[in-house]
């Protein structure tokens, strides 16, 4: 790699990492805001909604990942338009969630299920198209536009949630604030020509082939989202209702422990896909090494600072420093699984990508069914699941390719 190429890539990462930092901070503040204005039982319901809607969004991130790969590989010289496929998949997903939600939403969301379900369906429609736009930007290496889209969405979510809290919107109001932020991309498309170009992006190959790969990617990222952001849903369905009513402290601790690693990595993984396509698997070595250092240092810091931070957010929330340290280490494992998953997508090994995340999610869910305290079940599931998924990714494709 030439010095000029290295410098260019370094400059391209600056806006991406800035957007990652903004997204991480904004997500933190929204969760803190909810914990401050809602009582613990209602906040537990909000965290379940947050987990459910971000699990759906996480599935739709597969649209971003596959659009990135397809556009980057095609060089935007193909004959197949991407956005009609995105509209079809996003609309179908919204319809499926809306119709099926009549059955599962009352069980998951409680008395406020109708307002929360409608908010979730609206968010799915908006986010599916935003995912395609972000993928087109990443696939054309338009990292500034990509970063603006992600960063502005996070800022808008924080603004809307703050307004909802101030006017007393509480649970349903905060839920709508979360999903309406996904409409920010519309303003960029109306205001800037480069974003309108992303809407018209084309790739080589057939529409049916693109749709099939997108669906496989969405299945994998949907499974991954249950571990990354939808974990409260897994915990809710594997925990008795009376125990889960007091689960807000550990659920919030999981989110606080993960955000510094997983929010930036979630944004960076599309950069990683393009780098592995271009330069091979050797680009993973410094990333994995740096991840290990950050997880170790973060775990030590969390042992001391975690309980104090949780008390600042809500004086009634108690989680030990030992548990916080373990949560940060498990977040490192989930981050490593995200890296191996992005690498398998870059190598066009979609079946291995899907299998790794499905195995990880299944192992994590089954581990939650084991006897023990709530904290120990959470820690064991968040360690066992990612380790199983990493083994599938490495054994099923990365080891042979390297």
UniProtKB/TrEMBL annotation:
Gene source species: Nocardioides hwasunensis
Keywords, comma-separated and alphabetical: Membrane, Transmembrane, Transmembrane helix
> What is the protein's given name?
Polysaccharide biosynthesis protein
**Transmembrane regions:** 12-35, 41-61, 82-106, 112-133, 145-167, 173-191, 212-231, 243-263, 283-304, 324-347, 354-372, 378-399
Q: Which domain of life is it from?
A: Bacteria
């Amino acid at each position: 790699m030439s010095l000029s190429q290295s410098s260019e890539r370094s400059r391209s990462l600056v806006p991406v990492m800035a957007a990652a930092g903004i997204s991480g901070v904004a997500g933190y503040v929204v969760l803190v805001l909810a914990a401050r204005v809602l009582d613990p039982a209602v906040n537990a319901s909000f965290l379940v909604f947050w987990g459910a809607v971000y699990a759906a969004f996480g599935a739709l991130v597969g649209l971003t990942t596959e659009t990135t790969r397809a556009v980057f590989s095609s060089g935007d010289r193909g004959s197949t338009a991407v956005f009609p496929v995105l509209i079809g998949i996003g609309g179908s997903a919204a319809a499926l969630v809306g119709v099926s939600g009549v059955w599962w939403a009352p069980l998951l969301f409680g008395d406020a299920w109708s307002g929360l379900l409608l908010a979730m369906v609206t968010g799915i429609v908006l986010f599916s198209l935003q995912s395609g736009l972000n993928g087109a930007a990443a696939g054309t290496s338009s990292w500034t536009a990509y970063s603006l889209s992600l960063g502005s969405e996070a800022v808008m979510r924080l603004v809307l949630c703050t307004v909802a809290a101030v006017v007393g919107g509480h649970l349903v109001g905060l839920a709508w604030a979360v999903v309406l932020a996904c409409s920010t991309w519309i303003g960029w498309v109306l205001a800037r020509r480069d974003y309108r170009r992303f809407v018209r992006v084309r790739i080589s190959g057939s529409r049916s082939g693109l749709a099939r790969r997108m669906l496989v990617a969405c299945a994998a990222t949907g499974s991954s989202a249950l571990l990354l952001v939808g974990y409260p849903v897994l915990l809710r369905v594997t925990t008795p209702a009376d125990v889960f009513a007091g689960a807000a402290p550990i659920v919030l601790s999981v989110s606080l422990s993960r955000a510094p690693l997983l929010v930036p990595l979630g944004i960076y993984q599309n950069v990683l896909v393009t780098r592995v396509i271009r330069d091979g698997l050797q680009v993973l070595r410094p990333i994995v090494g740096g991840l290990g250092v950050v997880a170790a240092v973060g775990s030590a810091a969390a042992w001391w600072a975690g309980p104090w931070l949780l008390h600042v957010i809500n004086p009634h929330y108690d989680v030990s420093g030992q548990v916080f340290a373990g949560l940060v280490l498990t977040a490192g494992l989930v981050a490593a699984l995200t890296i191996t998953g992005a690498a398998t997508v870059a190598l066009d090994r979609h079946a291995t990508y899907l299998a790794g995340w499905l195995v990880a999610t299944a192992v994590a869910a089954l581990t939650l069914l084991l006897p023990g305290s709530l904290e120990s079940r959470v820690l064991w599931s968040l360690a066992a699941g990612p380790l199983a998924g990493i083994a599938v990714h490495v054994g099923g494709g990365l080891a042979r390719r390297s």
